[in-house]
Specification:
There is one protein chain. It is built from 11 helices and 17 strands. With 497 residues, it is an alpha+beta fold. The radius of gyration is 32 Å and the shape is elongated. It is found in: Cell membrane. It is a multi-pass membrane protein.
């Protein structure tokens, strides 16, 4: 094959294009990663003026905080032992939860930021099924709490308290409004019980004369948080809790692991560069424990790619099914509820409360047998968090759990002597947090669209490399065949001569 100057120039050009596009493709990921790292160092640190700080200090959209209550419809059958509790779910009763970080202080020695997060609940009548003063029937929680507190006290004391409660027409079931059961209501009998308890040196913060699951928590906060700020550009523990109320460990559970304060403060942010193999967790101040998250699937939310993580059923499993939960069994592992619920009595001041996923989703079949009217659904009831993989920001999330009352017969209290032995659901919450349209447009234009373009750039470089290599090979083949056609007639002529 004869190489002319034109052939050499063509082959040289194609070879150069092949090597150039190959080198660009090989180094492209490194260049992109360097650009991403530079952007993260600029936008993620929690300092005034950064993009992350803007959304962290005051989320632009309030949380849709939905409450669903369980209305007990067969009180008489429960008390005479002829039927298990039957409930009907009522709701949602929706509050707009406005969040704002306050009292912000920085600690340079360990690159943390300290804050309180104010919570303001505003009732949203338009999104609710009815007014918040709508009533429903539930177990008389203060009354059964008194029975639970006094169950190991002398029989004569239980008899006196029981007689007083009955003389005041206290019953095992009461009709209360959503507002009452959530924000609290005063109970004259409970006040009297508080006075009796104090006389006999029996103390419980529940015996104050008032009861409510979120009593005195509107326009307040969940305590003082210290989280890692990323100001030192170390994002491995970014947004993770260093201390809560100056504690790295609590004293409410039965193991060091269970008591440890760890994970994201509210689940809204995680360390950046999340993958499906990332080990994520959140610390829930209401449940007083950390919940691990488990990767579920890759998805898209409003045009932006996200990784969807779930709170797995195993987080509410018994120690038998999940040995890691042994520390949540109180007083010991022999007293674990069946898988699906966690005993909360140590953090609810001896009230016989248990936490679970809504409708006992993922729990032991026992729960569906001892209460009728439950319809667990993974789509409706499993908590989830959808994170942007690069920034670690939750673009869509639902915090969900259910509060249940552990009922059983109390021999010292006539009202509860024939009470059903069951875990009776009281209510469940569905706290849905999403990003607003302008923020999602920002994520799409500044992050998702460039990421989509990167895919096409990669494909273009690969295609250009392949085309330049193929073109060179085809040219060489073409020239070889052309030269062969010229050489063959000459050889035949020489043979004849």
């Amino acid at each position: 094959m004869r190489f002319t100057k034109k052939k050499i120039a063509a082959i040289t050009t194609l070879t150069f294009l092949f090597l150039l596009t190959l080198i660009l493709r090989v180094t492209f990921d490194t260049i992109v990663n360097a650009v991403i790292a530079m952007e993260l160092r600029e936008k993620l640190p929690l300092r005034n003026g950064s993009l992350a700080f803007h959304y962290w200090v005051k989320p632009p959209v309030p949380v849709d905080f939905k409450i669903y209550v369980f209305d007990i419809v067969n009180q008489e059958e429960i008390l005479d032992g002829s039927a298990v509790p039957t409930v009907i779910e009522r709701g949602p009763y929706v509050y707009k939860l406005h969040l704002k970080k306050t009292d912000i202080k920085y600690h340079g020695e360990n690159s943390t930021v300290q804050y309180r997060q104010k919570q303001q609940f505003v009732y949203d009548r338009k999104s609710s099924v009815g007014p918040e003063n709508t009533t429903f029937t539930t177990v008389n929680i203060p009354f059964i709490t008194v029975a639970n507190v006094l169950q190991f006290e002398p029989a004569w004391l239980q008899t006196i308290v029981d007689s007083y409660f009955r003389s005041q027409n206290e019953a095992p079931f009461i009709k209360k409004s959503v507002r009452d059961i959530w924000w609290g209501y005063e109970d004259p009998v409970l006040k009297q019980a508080s006075a009796i308890a104090k006389y006999f040196n029996i103390s419980s913060p529940l015996l104050t004369g008032k009861f409510g699951f979120f009593m005195d928590k509107n326009n307040t906060d969940d305590g003082v948080f210290n989280v890692f700020s990323g100001l030192n550009h170390n994002f491995t523990d970014y947004a993770m809790i260093d201390r809560w109320n100056n504690m790295r460990s609590q004293s409410v559970w039965k193991s060091d692991f269970a008591n440890r304060v760890r994970g994201s403060g509210d689940g809204s942010m995680q360390p950046p560069l999340i993958t499906k193999h990332s080990k994520l967790s959140i610390f829930d101040t209401n449940l007083r424990r950390t919940l691990s998250l488990e990767f579920n699937t890759s998805a898209s939310y409003k045009g932006v790619d996200v990784l969807r993580f779930l709170v797995p059923y195993s987080e509410f499993a018994s120690a038998k099914d999940n040995p890691g939960n042994a520390g949540y069994c109180t007083p010991d592992t022999n007293h674990c509820p069946p898988s699906g619920a966690i005993n909360m009595s140590t953090v609810s001041y001896t009230a016989p409360l248990c936490a679970s996923l809504p409708h006992f989703l993922g729990g032991d079949p026992y729960y569906q047998k001892q209460v009728k009217g439950l319809t667990p659904s993974q789509e409706k009831h499993q908590p989830y968090y959808e994170y942007h993989s690069i920034t670690g920001v939750a673009l869509n999330a639902a915090r969900r759990y259910q509060l249940n009352l552990r009922t059983k017969p109390y021999k010292g209290f006539e009202a509860f002597r024939t009470m059903a032995d069951a875990y009776v659901p009281v209510l469940w919450i569905d706290g849905v947090a999403t990003m607003d349209r302008s923020t999602m447009n920002l994520f799409k234009s500044d992050l998702q669209d460039p990421l989509n373009a990167i895919v096409y750039v990669k494909l273009t470089l690969i295609l250009a490399s392949c085309l330049s290599a193929a073109s060179a090979l085809l040219l060489l083949l073409h020239w070889w065949r052309a030269d062969k056609k010229l050489i063959t007639p000459l050889e035949e002529s020489a043979t004849v001569n």
